[in-house]
Amino acid sequence: MSDLLSQIKNFSLIVADTGDFAAMKKYTPRDATTNPSLLLKAATMPEYAALIDATLAGVVSQNLPATQRLDAALDALSVAFGLEILKIVPHRVSTEVDARLSFDHTATVAKAHKLIAQYEAAGISRERILIKIASTWEGIQAAAALKKDGIKCNLTLLFSFAQAVACAEAGVQLISPFVGRILDWHKKSTGKAEYAPAEDPGVVSVSRIYNYYKTYGYQTEVMGASFRNLGEITELAGCDLLTISPNLLEDLQKASGTVVRKLDASKAASLNTDAKLHLDEKTFRWMHNEDAMATEKLSEGIRQFGADTLKLEKVIAPKLGL
Q1: Catalytic residue status for 132
Q2: Which entry of 132, 214, 262, 297 is annotated as an active-site residue?
Q3: What is the pTM of this model?
Q4: With contact defined as beta carbons under 8 Å apart, do 263 and 210 qualify?
Q5: Which of the listed CATH numbers 3.40.50.10540, 3.20.20.70, 3.30.565.10, 3.40.250.10 matches domain 4-320?
Q6: pLDDT tens by residue, 137-175
């Protein structure tokens, strides 16, 4: 009997949720995704010192005003790591827009264009890049605008059904609904220590979104993210993509058993219980606001990514002469 990871790959595309190049080589994912927290971790690891130093030296050589240097360095580091990742994975990498722009449509669009321009200058087609944006109303509308320019986006920090519906209506390429963080909230809120995989609130949320998308023919890809245990992953076998951390990839590779496909586009309509929705801004904001878990976790996630970006700035500032 093959290991769980090999079996899941028969039903879902596997994405590495890491900035660790060695882990990507080991588990052979099709795609990879990073975020500010992962970049911060990588920036403090000795094996990436040469890449970081060379990238920052390139920024210093541009003789930018001090006020622009940190911003340019963050972009350069994001792209530098993305370029290295694309030497390993055969398909796409997700590169995240600064979380501090999460409520600024215009700045998000501008930042995405800057990142894409740097990739294209390095010889990488925009087809291999997903610009990662928080699933705020402003972020979702920025993704819709970027799509018109041929730039594909990964909408992250997605917790509510309203966010998922708005992303589908905007025609975004991919969404990353967070499974484990939903579970975390419900454990804390209810005091319940454990959930069976099929009853896990994060699993239930992603299953609902998947079945809704497939029922109404939306082309937006669903990528389950932020897993806490193997049960969550196997319960979502069949989801378009699953982005998994190296420690859980290792656990899946070591584990045996039988993986059964749980999400199936051909069965979605029989399982979907939601009427098709159309959300304008006011309806979206109210519907999302009504979901206490989603409201709290979205805000918390943006704050966390913003804080880790500030920490990364402090790490690299001395190397920029700041």
Answers
A1: yes
A2: 132
A3: 0.94
A4: yes
A5: 3.20.20.70
A6: 999 999 999 999 999 999 999 999 999 999 999 999 999
